[in-house]
C-alpha cells in the first residue's frame, strides 16, 4: 500500500539550550542534532516507520546537503525518485532552538526555489494515481496543492491536507477528504479565535459541510477534535512531558493516513494518531520515532 507525501524537505538542526539567549547574549548548546527534516520528510519518515511504501514529492537544492538528506531518506525506505533537485538553489534549513521548558524558536531558511511547483506534482502523476492516499502540505504553493488534489481525486485516491494558509480555496476543499490543522491554522480557517473544544467542533463542522469527510483540528491547545458529517469526538492531549512539540502534528497526520489506508475504523485511527503525537512530543526534533508496536499500546 503506498502513500505519496507532497511537502518540504529540509536540513533540520535542533539545538538544545537551557534558555534561549536574548539580544546581545549567547547560550551554550548542550545537545545538537542534525537530521532529515521538513514537514514532508517527517511525514514520509513516519509512514515508512509504520511499514507503508511511501514516495516523497519535494524539492532540494544543488548542494552537499541535498546529497546527505536524500541518502538518509533512501535509508529510511522512502522513494525519492520524485524529489526534484534545483540547480543553483540551496537546500532548505530549519533551526529549532529548544529550551529546557519545551519552548521552541524556529529559524527557517526556505528558499523560494525549494517550494513544490505544479510541474513537480504533474511529474509525479503516475505515482499519485496509483497510491492509496496523497498527503499534501498547505505550506506549499496553493497551485501545487490543487494540482495534487485534482490528480488524486480524479483517480479516486484519498486526499489528506495538512495546514491552512490562504491557499485553502473552496475548490481545494471540494477535492479533499481529510484536513488537519494545528491551533493557529484552525483559527485561520475559522476566521476567529478558538478558545474551547466547542469552538473547534463548530469550525470542523463548517469544514465538513464544504466537502471534507473528516476535519481534525487542534482544540484550544487541550486536545484534538475529529469531526465528520455524522458526529465528532474530542481526544484530550495525553499526560506526558512535552520536550518539543515539533513534528507532533506531522506524526499525527502520518499515522492517521496510515490507519485510514489500513482500513481502521475512525475511532481507532484517531486514537493511533493522537498516540503518535504524544510519542513525538517526548523527544527533541520533528523526526518521528514511530512503530506499530509502540502505537498499539494505546488502542
Ligand atoms: N501531550 C500531548 N499529547 C498528544 N498530542 C500533543 C501533546 N502535546 C501537543 N500535542 C499535539 O501536537 C500538535 C502539534 O502540532 P503542529 O503544531 O501541527 O506540529 P508540527 O507542525 O510541528 O508537526 C498539537 O496540535 C497537539 O495536538
Ligand atoms: Mg503542523
UniProtKB/TrEMBL annotation:
EC main group: transferase
Signal peptide range: none
Protein name: Ribokinase
Organism, as annotated: Amycolatopsis sacchari
GO biological process, one term: D-ribose metabolic process
Taxon lineage: Bacteria, Bacillati, Actinomycetota, Actinomycetes, Pseudonocardiales
GO CC aspect terms: cytosol
Listed PROSITE patterns: PFKB_KINASES_1 (PS00583)
Sample GO molecular function, one term: metal ion binding
E.C. number(s) listed in UniProt: 2.7.1.15
InterPro entries: Carboh/pur_kinase_PfkB_CS, PfkB_dom, Ribo/fructo_kinase, Ribokinase, Ribokinase-like
Domain Carbohydrate kinase PfkB as annotated: residue spans: 2-287
Family of the protein in this entry: Belongs to the carbohydrate kinase PfkB family.
UniProt keyword annotations, A-Z: ATP-binding, Carbohydrate metabolism, Kinase, Magnesium, Metal-binding, Nucleotide-binding, Potassium, Transferase
Amino acid at each position: 500500500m503506498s502513500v505519496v507525501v507532497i511537502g518540504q524537505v529540509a536540513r533540520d538542526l535542533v539545538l538544545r539550550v537551557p534558555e534561549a539567549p536574548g539580544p546581545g547574549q549567547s547560550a551554550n548548546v548542550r545537545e545538537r542534532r542534525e537530521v532529515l527534516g521538513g514537514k514532508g520528510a517527517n511525514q514520509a519518515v513516519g509512514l515508512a516507520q509504520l511499514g507503508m511504501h511511501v514516495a516523497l514529492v519535494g524539492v532540494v537544492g544543488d548542494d552537499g546537503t541535498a546529497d546527505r538528506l536524500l541518502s538518509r531518506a533512501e535509508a529510511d525506505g522512502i522513494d525519492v525518485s520524485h524529489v526534484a533537485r534545483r540547480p543553483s538553489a540551496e537546500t532548505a534549513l530549519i533551526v529549532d532552538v529548544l529550551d529546557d521548558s519545551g519552548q521552541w524558536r524556529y529559524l527557517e531558511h526556505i528558499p523560494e526555489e525549494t517550494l513544490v511547483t505544479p510541474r513537480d506534482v504533474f511529474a509525479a502523476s503516475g505515482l499519485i494515481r496509483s497510491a492509496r492516499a496523497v498527503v499534501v502540505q498547505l505550506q506549499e504553493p496553493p497551485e501545487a496543492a490543487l494540482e495534487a488534489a485534482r490528480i488524486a481525486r480524479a483517480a479516486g485516491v484519498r486526499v489528506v491536507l495538512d495546514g491552512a494558509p490562504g491557499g485553502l480555496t473552496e475548490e481545494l476543499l471540494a477535492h479533499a477528504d481529510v484536513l488537519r490543522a494545528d491551533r493557529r491554522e484552525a483559527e485561520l480557517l475559522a476566521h476567529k479565535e478558538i478558545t474551547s473544544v466547542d469552538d473547534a467542533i463548530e469550525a470542523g463542522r463548517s469544514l465538513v459541510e464544504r466537502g471534507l469527510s473528516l476535519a481534525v483540528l487542534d482544540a484550544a491547545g487541550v486536545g484534538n477534535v475529529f469531526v465528520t458529517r455524522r458526529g465528532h469526538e474530542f481526544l484530550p492531549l495525553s499526560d506526558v512531558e512535552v520536550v518539543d512539540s515539533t513534528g507532533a502534528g506531522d506524526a499525527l497526520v502520518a499515522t492517521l493516513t496510515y490507519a485510514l489506508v489500513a482500513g481502521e475504523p475512525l475511532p481507532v485511527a484517531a486514537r493511533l494518531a493522537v498516540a503518535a503525537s504524544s510519542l513525538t512530543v517526548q523527544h527533541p526534533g520533528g523526526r518521528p520515532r514511530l512503530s506499530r508496536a509502540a502505537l498499539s499500546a494505546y488502542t
